[in-house]
Amino acid sequence: MPSVKSFETDMRRARRKKRAKRNIKNFMFILAVAMVFGLVYLSRDAWIDFFDGILDRHQTAVQNDGMLAGGNYPIDISKKTHTKIGAISKDWTLFADTTFYVYDSSGDVVYSAQTPYSNPIVDEAGKRALVYDQGGYNFTVCGPRDEIYSKRLTNQILLGAVGPDGSVAIVTADEKYVSYLTIYDKSGSEIYHWADGTMITAVSVAENGKGCLVSCSYARSGSFKSVVTQLSFNSTEVAMQTAPLETLGFSVEYCDGGSWLLGRDKLYRLNADGGIESSLEFEYELSDFDLGESMAALVFETADGSGGTVTIVSAQDSESASVPLQDSVNECYVSDKAVYVLTEKSVNAYNAQAGLLATAPLSTAYRSFAHVGNEIFLLGYRSVEKIEFTF
Predict the structure, then answer these.
(1) Which of 117, 129, 148, 299 could make an SS bond with 141 (beta carbons 3.0 to 4.6 A apart)?
(2) Looking at residue 57, what is its pLDDT?
């Protein structure tokens, strides 16, 4: 009969064999998992594009109720003839006839300035607004609560732009040059001048205020050509200049890794050296656009005017995506995170892949809008309204 000691010895031997088998199984499982992950990593180029942006593509759109705010809203503008809505800092702005207003979120006027210009143009960025008299001689720079400075020039103003840091670019007519660029710092001092003998058709000031992009256009052999030049305010040398591009450029903007040039019939995505990353030729009439750091948005009308198409181009990979809409599109706006689109019946927000992020129905049609934080301010023909808009 086996002894107790012998039985215990056999049990220990059996447990050791079982533990050894379990360790071998665990090792084989870990090795198999490692091999699978290795194969997935080595073949990543074949499948990773499929998952790129998948969360954005399948994100459920937020349904905002589109309910109009009360209190000071609606703000009556029925006696105003010419109106334009915008935003600076955390406030929204209204240019009405000859007066520039700044409103807070509640609809209270926190600042106003008289600018009796015959052809006023408003440009806004960061905490500054530039109001200039196109074809005239005067311009004014305003902040959220006061006037920063105003100037009267000796040459006619052709166009202007303000940068996020408060720097201002003014292009004027000149006896010696077709057009002449002057840069003012945030206090109004002249810091830079430039001209090359061609017509400056667009200008954009860099976010840090240390340079700008300029688009110059000219006609040759029966067609328009444009050249984009990057200038640095601390150097007399040109920082970058493109070869002639086949379009009449009328908007230029910095973007991630390069710049945009919007022409009459094309959109160019340029790299940091001025080379063409991509170009998109327009098949239909362009009715509105906006250029941003990460995206560009283009609005095209249908042939019968019954609807529109919004095309969004990503600055990161130059890929484009389009959204056909049954309603007419009145305006688009590009922010850091989304493209906002105002139609006759709704406000919508889209990502770079043209996926719907959020929407809000509208009970009436509005001409224009301003986006500030989680609020949309809607400019109608007789009033300004406000709705909450989140995603």
Answers:
(1) 148
(2) 47
pLDDT > 80? residue 102: yes
Burial class (CB in 10 A: 0-12, 13-18, 19+), 19: exposed
The structure tokens 């040109």 sit at 238
On the 0-12 / 13-18 / 19+ scale of CB atoms within 10 A, 271 is: middle
Write down the CATH superfamily of domain 54-80+283-391. Answer: YVTN repeat-like/Quinoprotein amine dehydrogenase (2.130.10.10)
The token pair that represents 55 in the structure block:
């969360």
Smallest Cα–Cα separation from 142: which of 198, 181, 186, 184? Answer: 186
CATH code of the region 115-281: 2.130.10.10
What are the extents of the domains in the chain?
A: 54-80+283-391, 115-281
**Is residue 337 within 8 Å of residue 352, measured between CB atoms?**
no
Strand 356-361 relative to strand 62-63: parallel, antiparallel, unpaired? parallel
Q: Give the pLDDT band (50/70/90) at residue 307.
A: confident
Kindly give the interhelix angle for 4-42 and 44-51, rounded to the nearest 10 degrees.
Answer: 80
Give phi and psi for 268, each to the nearest 5: -105, 140
Q: Determine the pLDDT at residue 215.
A: 98
Residue 73: count of CB within 10 angstroms of its CB: 16
Q: For residue 211, count other CB atoms closer than 10 A to its CB.
A: 22
Does the structure show a pLDDT above 80 at 37? no
Strands 276-281 and 286-291: unpaired
Is-contact 388 62, C-beta < 8 A? no
* Residue-by-residue DSSP string for 341-357: EEESSEEEEE-TT--EE
How many Å apart are CA 245 and CA 224, to the nearest integer?
9
Q: Residue 130: which residues within 8 A CB-CB, separation 6 or more? A: 122, 123, 124, 139, 140, 141, 160, 161, 162, 168
Contact 292, 334 (CB under 8 A): yes
Residue 302 CB-density burial (10 A; 0-12 exposed, 13-18 middle, 19+ buried): middle
The reply to whether 115-281 shares the fold of 54-80+283-391 is yes
Annotate 165-196 with three-state secondary structure.
Answer: CCCEEEEECCCCCCCEEEEECCCCCEEEEECC
